[in-house]
UniProtKB/TrEMBL annotation:
Protein name: MMPL family transporter
Organism of derivation: Streptomyces scopuliridis
Species lineage: Bacteria, Bacillati, Actinomycetota, Actinomycetes, Kitasatosporales
Length: 785
């Protein structure tokens, strides 16, 4: 409370021992040299260890229990070398048929067989003129491919493995034959992504936004420095973890993207609170400690929510997906650690000089505070320089407050406007088609894209994604096997969507029948997915019905189709788990049933709208060419799952930050409309700047050559933009206004069983209001004043 002179008076009854977070913040600010040196040592040490011992990233994953995986294992047991992972070396000679370089092809095939990890190599040319065609040579004889089966995913071998492959095919290149690497071998040969341009653009925009929003040069530099250090430390830790287990190739980019975004946001939240304290006359060390004890606690809650959402990806029961969540969570952890330790240390180093260098008048939170009453003005009023009076609360309100008051007067109109905007953006979502993006969408500078184009021209697009058909007839009596083969042959005649299906031939031991189905369309086309399900679920099972034989559709493309089916089936479960966990966290922290429900529902709406934008750009092709996308592509099967977990977690940053201020005012005044206006006024500048920075960081990754990274970058940027504008400026204030005090209502029995969490400011004594106090929000806990 304050005396009549405006000086702050401590209430002895409300004072408790300073909490651990405040002590941590003050210690870091006071011993800033020690903290900064420790972080720099961690930075250099972990980066060096990662350079020396860090693992590699590859898209090597298996789907145990799926029919494609079972089929590959069955095939491998009966046909040595056939059960591995396939890739191609594609050959094209514009001057003559490949038979004209028979000796060079034979030498290349022989050299490839000697390489490590190679199970088998198949030449595109017949061994003798009388031998039957292999199927790997085009009708004009100018295009062919050497089939290679590896015992593991080639992308996990490391770039040095290509030296042996290059040496093996050198005689062909010397003879003028174009040689390209297709499939997973081509992915190994892709240029190593750095995304340095994206990071520089993201940082450049962040500098401009911070300087324009807050004016102070040093205050703008601290979030960038801490975010960069946190990301390098996090990615280095991820590299060391990758030495023990396999992470997807997109993992470091994803970790960098998330780490930069949340790192800048978290540091910004603390710095604005700290600088407001300095402007109010507090000591720099005490201001840093208080910032960590208040905004730092909100950062921890937000970080935990993000990590919980990412951990929800393990509900998919696919380690490939779960590890993507782990990769992003690593840099979230380092961002939180940097915010509560390195940020106060840098604030302690800057001291009161933090606003010495500025490009405009420095501002912080814009927290409206009562000012001394000027002479000649009645108590309860305050004169502006123009002579007009301020509201009776004595606060100087800005345009955000007036905007919130407009929402108060017409909440239904603002709610309807927000719902219409989200609904229009979400329309494309209803036509979403999940799939796997094939090499045809890659830049032509990639060897796997050139290999894809050569095979498409020579054999048709479906040859890039053949299905291997396997029939296990070991349980069928030998006398019945010819009839079984005849039944299968009839079932596989004139199959819709198939360009060709080779007759199934018995293996050397006679236990299997194998063949190849070539789709009419590209691997990523809807027709290929339809063909896969027809072969797997109808044609083959129907042909062997009642015989005891088992059928499989396997191969790389079949594995991706099984992966798609698995993800599609488990996506609703992941959404449910993540929403439920986030709902519980918000309920525990803010102790308002409708507040938690509102947060979950509005986040679902914003994510649906961002999904719609992604579908319109990538699947419909609206603006895709300008983003470097060749044609239209399906939505990569795991992108919606990743987007949901990441966006749902990140949106809670702004939710926690805004609701924290609204709840503070509500607990102090019990005036719901004014609390919403005050919370929006205080947080609008920080949330707007933080969101603009995060949007810029994510959007900069659209420049990546990786289509999945482009998709994630656009989806995350649009999600944050929608969340910070439509949701925070239209839907949240409108809904909170309509709910009024009932937003903070919590049943007494639920209040008693929920754990007690002091969200911000452990210096205040918590209290419990009973249901008998007759006011909305009974049972809510908060600080006394």
């Amino acid at each position: 409370m304050t005396s009549q002179s405006g000086a702050e008076v401590k209430d002895p009854g409300s004072q408790v021992r300073a909490g651990r977070l405040r002590l941590l913040g003050e210690w870091c600010a006071r011993h800033f040299i020690t903290v900064i040196v420790l972080w720099l040592l961690a930075l250099g040490g972990l980066y060096g260890l990662n350079t020396a011992f860090g693992g590699t990233y590859s898209d090597n994953f298996s789907l145990p229990g799926t029919q494609s995986d079972d089929g590959a294992r069955v095939l491998g047991r009966h046909v040595p070398g056939a059960g591995g992972i396939g890739a191609q070396v594609v050959l094209y000679d514009a001057r003559r048929p490949l038979t004209g370089v028979q000796s060079q092809v034979d030498r290349a095939v022989g050299s490839l067989r000697t390489l490590p990890h190679v199970l088998s190599v198949t030449s595109p040319l017949p061994s003798t003129p009388a031998a039957p065609p292999t199927g790997a040579l085009s009708p004009d004889g100018r295009t062919g491919y050497i089939g290679i089966q590896f015992n593991a995913n080639p992308t996990s071998f490391g770039g040095s493995y290509l030296h042996g492959v290059d040496a093996a095919v050198q005689p062909l290149r010397a003879a003028g034959v174009q040689v390209e690497y297709g499939g997973l071998l081509g992915e190994l040969a892709r240029p190593r992504p750095t995304d340095l341009t994206s990071e520089i653009i993201g940082f450049g925009v962040a500098v401009i936004v911070l300087l324009a929003g807050f004016g102070s040069v040093i205050a703008a530099a601290i979030p960038l420095v801490t975010a960069l250090i946190g990301v390098i430390v996090g990615v280095s830790c991820l590299g060391l973890i990758a030495a023990a287990t396999t992470f997807a190739s997109v993992s470091p980019t994803l970790a960098t993207m998330i780490g930069l975004g949340v790192g800048i946001d978290y540091a910004l939240f603390l710095i604005t609170r700290h600088r407001q304290r300095l402007m109010d006359g507090a000591d720099p060390v005490a201001a840093a400690g208080r910032a960590v004890a208040t905004s730092g606690r909100a950062v921890i809650v937000s970080g935990c929510t993000v990590i919980v959402a990412l951990a929800g990806l393990y509900v998919s029961q696919v380690s490939f997906i779960g590890k993507l969540g782990v990769a992003a969570a690593v840099t979230v952890v380092t961002a939180v650690a940097g915010a509560i330790t390195l940020v106060p240390a840098l604030l302690g180093l800057a001291g009161r000089r933090i606003d010495r260098y500025w490009v405009r008048r420095p501002v912080a939170e814009g927290d409206p505070a009562p000012a001394p009453t000027p002479k000649g003005v009645e108590r309860g009023e305050r004169k502006r320089p123009t002579g007009r009076t301020e509201p009776a609360d004595g606060a100087v309100h800005d345009g955000w407050h007036r905007y919130a008051q407009r929402v108060e007067r017409r909440p239904w109109w603002f709610l309807l406007a927000g719902l219409v905007a989200v609904g229009v953006l979400a329309i494309p979502l209803f036509s979403i088609r999940l799939g796997h993006i094939d090499d045809g969408a890659d830049p032509t500078s990639f060897t796997d894209r050139r290999a894809y184009d050569l095979i498409s021209a020579g054999f048709g697009p479906g040859a890039n994604g053949p299905f291997i058909l396997v029939v296990d007839q070991s349980a069928v009596p030998a006398a019945d096997r010819p009839a079984l083969a005849s039944r299968i042959g009839r079932a596989l005649t004139d199959v819709p969507g198939a360009a060709s299906i080779t007759p199934l031939q018995p293996t050397a031991d006679g236990q299997l029948l194998t063949g190849t189905a070539i789709p009419s369309g590209a691997p990523q086309s809807a027709g290929t997915t339809t063909l896969f399900h027809h072969l797997k679920d109808d044609a083959l099972p129907g042909a062997v019905s009642g015989t005891g034989a088992k059928t499989y559709v396997t191969g790389t493309t079949a594995a991706m189709e099984d992966f798609l089916d698995l993800i599609t089936a488990r996506l609703p479960l992941i959404i449910g788990v993540v929403v439920a966990l986030a709902f519980v966290i918000i309920l525990i922290v803010f102790r308002g049933l409708l507040v938690a429900l509102k947060a979950a529902v509005l986040n679902l709406l914003s994510i649906a709208a961002s999904y719609g934008v992604v579908v319109a750009v990538f699947q419909w092709g609206w603006g895709g060419p300008s983003l470097g996308i060749s044609g239209t592509v399906p939505i990569e099967s795991y992108v919606p799952m990743m987007m949901f977990a990441i966006v749902f977690g990140l949106s809670m940053d702004y939710e926690v930050f805004l609701l924290a201020r609204v709840q503070e005012s509500w607990l102090r005044t019990h005036e719901s409309k004014g609390s919403v206006a005050l919370g929006l006024e205080i947080t609008a500048r920080v949330i707007s700047c933080a969101a603009l920075i995060m949007v810029s960081v994510f959007a900069a990754f659209i420049l990546s050559d990786n289509i999945v990274v482009k998709m994630l970058g656009l989806g995350l940027a649009v999600s944050v933009l929608i969340d910070a504008t439509i949701v925070r400026l239209l839907l949240v204030p409108a809904v909170m206004t309509l709910l009024g005090g009932s937003a903070w209502w919590l049943p007494g029995w639920l209040d008693r069983i929920l754990p007690q969490v002091n969200r911000e400011g452990e210096e205040a004594t918590p209290y419990r209001r009973s249901a008998s106090d007759g006011r909305p929000g009974a049972g809510v806990q908060g600080p006394t004043h």
